[in-house]
Write a structure and sequence with these properties.
Radius of gyration: 48 Å
Strand content: 5-15%
Strand order of the largest sheet: 4-8-12-16-20-24-28-32-35-36
Number of strands: 36
Largest sheet: 10 strands, parallel
Number of helices: 12
Distance between the termini: 125 Å
Length: about 575
């Protein structure tokens, strides 16, 4: 019984059948009805509307023959001749003919309109069907293309695990090409969706860089031209392992190079095609040189816990989001110079066994360098710190250069050791500056600087020990170049450990000899300049137009140049003061 019910449900009703039949045959029916109606109207209506004079004469004749008519004799004499009747019938017949033609024209026009409507409907239906077929074919094509990409992706990932370096290299280039394809796929409307597809592949490339390679632990021995160390008397194994290490370095270098090429744009400081990806190289061992100069990172990057066996260049780069370089070891030279960090930048707990350069850089958020060791020279000159700068608990075995820098917030150098010279000259400290509990074993120079707020060298609440200058007194006044130091606060602490080192000689005002306090006019000038610079920086964060951005940068540069020139003049001792000083000496 249920089967019968189902069959009854499936059968269409009589109304549905009528509708389907009418939908199929409506055009012939409509044309037949219009034609029939038009012909009927053309044949009957003109005859009824226009009666000819002959018909009227027939009526008159019949009336004249009627005996009941009193004027019978007179009327019978009014019958007209055939020629007069034809002359009177002509206009009427013409009107009838014109009306019939009009009905026929109207009928023909109506049929033509119906035909056009049907043709238009058929064309639209055909176009709609073609569009639907095309859309279906496009979807199928896109499905096949994306399925092909994922198949190539799976195969390329497998190639990365192959024993042969050329096959691994092929896998790298396949993955790189797939990232480009996803980014250029305009069939994916949302850019974020393209990035999502590409990020999966980027994660695989980064994972390959992070993966350990056994022979990397013997980098030092294998970098020698001849067998040494554990390879002594193992010449054949030495050259075999060296070839394996070099081939793997080439594979990994190709990944870094392909990423680097897409992190930079021909225009200066603008994003590249791959700048919107996140990169996680944490815990990597780079047994090959790294060149990532002129790179633009729009998302967070992570190089924490990494070891660099060779030189590394991160200079002239822009980091829009967090940059994490913590807990890393650099065996060769490391350069981060001329870079801009728009968010937090962390270099804590790191060891630099050769020179390290961070010069000419701008840190728009916090900059953290604490708990680090610099075995070679450390260069931080000409840098700007717009938020807190933390260098505490660090050791500088070579020279440490912090000169010509601007600290717009606090600067923390406490509990650090300077075994070489330390240069803090010609810098501006807008917030407090903390140099407490530090040891300076060589020449230390603060001359030409401006300390806008408190400066500390003495004890802190955690310890009774003060800073110590073991081999020579610090210099706040450069007699040779006639440069002194200016202080904005009267609440400074210049107490140092004189049992182990040299004192800071102070004048009656409690500041180092030959130095001065900032005047009220100088403080006001600095406050105005700092406000103007801050306004420009706020506008730079909001502006979208490149031309306006360039103008703001030029204005900012002119302000900073003006401020630097003013500082040079303000910290230069005048000739008459120099003459007085020479007389007193």
């Amino acid at each position: 019984m249920s089967d019968k019910k189902q069959s009854d449900v499936k059968q269409p009703g009589w109304l549905c059948k009528v509708w389907l039949w009418a939908k199929r045959w409506w055009l012939p029916i409509a044309i037949l009805l219009i034609t029939s109606t038009g012909l009927a109207c053309a044949l009957s209506i003109p005859q009824q509307v226009f009666e000819t004079p002959s018909n009227l004469n027939d009526r008159d004749t019949s009336t004249s023959q009627n005996p009941g008519t009193p004027d019978n004799k007179e009327t019978s004499h009014t019958i007209q001749s055939p020629s007069d009747s034809n002359n009177r019938n002509a206009p009427v017949l013409l009107a009838q003919s014109n009306l019939r033609l009009a009905f026929l024209y109207i009928t023909g026009g109506a049929i033509a309109v119906v035909g056009l409507i049907e043709t238009f409907r058929k064309n639209n239906n055909e176009k709609l069907k073609n569009d639907q077929d095309k859309e279906k074919n496009d979807r199928e094509h896109l499905r096949q293309v994306r399925a092909d990409r994922r198949e190539r992706y799976t195969k390329a990932v497998e190639q990365l695990g192959d024993e042969k370096a050329p096959i691994r290299m092929g896998g790298v280039y396949t993955l790189v090409g797939l990232v480009d394809e996803w980014l250029e796929d305009e069939s994916i409307e949302k850019y974020e969706d393209r990035l999502k597809e590409g990020q999966v592949i980027i994660n695989n490339l980064c994972a390959y860089i992070r993966s350990p390679f056994t022979l990397a632990s013997h980098y030092d021995e294998l970098s020698n031209p001849t067998p040494k160390g554990i390879y002594k008397d193992k010449k054949e194994k030495f050259y075999a392992d060296k070839a394996i290490l070099d081939s793997e370095a080439d594979v990994r270098l190709s990944i870094i190079k392909e990423i680097h090429d897409r992190l930079q744009d021909p225009d200066k400081n603008t994003p590249g095609a791959w700048s919107d990806f996140e990169y996680d190289f944490s815990g990597s061992t780079f047994f090959y040189p790294i060149d990532l100069t002129n790179s633009y990172y729009a998302k967070p990057i992570n190089f924490s816990g990494s070891t660099y066996k060779d030189w590394v260049y991160f200079s002239r780069s822009t980091y829009k989001d967090v940059a994490d370089f913590t807990d890393s070891t650099y065996q060769g030279g490391a350069s981060f110079s001329r870079s801009t960090y728009k968010s937090g930048a962390s270099f804590t707990d790191s060891t630099y066994k050769s020179g390290a350069s961070f010069r000419d850089s701008t840190y728009k958020s916090g900059a953290n360098f604490r708990d680090s060791t610099y075995q070679g020279g450390a260069n931080f000159t000409d840098s700007t710190y717009k938020s807190g700068a933390n260098f505490r608990d660090s050791t500088y075995q070579g020279g440490a250069d912090f000169s010509r820098s601007t600290y717009k917030s606090w600067a923390n150098f406490r509990r650090s050791t300077y075994k070489g010279w330390a240069d803090f000259r010609r810098s501006t400290y807008k917030g407090w500056a903390d140099f407490r509990r530090s040891t300076y074993e060589n020449e230390t120079d603060f001359s030409g600087s401006i300390f806008y707020q408190e400066t500390y060298f003495g004890e802190d609440r955690y310890s009774n020990s003060s800073s110590c200058f073991t081999n020579r007194a610090p210099q706040f006044y450069d007699k040779t170049n006639h440069k002194n130091t200016l202080f904005g606060s009267h609440n400074n602490d210049f107490t140092v450990d004189i049992d182990k080192g040299y004192p800071i000689d102070l004048d009656s005002k409690g500041i180092p000899l030959n130095c001065k306090f900032l005047t009220s006019e100088q403080k006001e000038y600095l406050a105005d300049k700092f406000r103007e610079i801050e306004k420009i920086n706020n506008k730079l964060r909001e502006v979208k137009d490149p031309e306006e951005n360039t103008k703001l940068l030029d204005t900012l540069e002119s302000f900073e140049k003006e401020l630097y020139e003013w500082q040079e003049e303000a910290t230069t001792v005048k000739m008459e003061d120099v003459a007085t000083e020479d007389t007193e000496s």
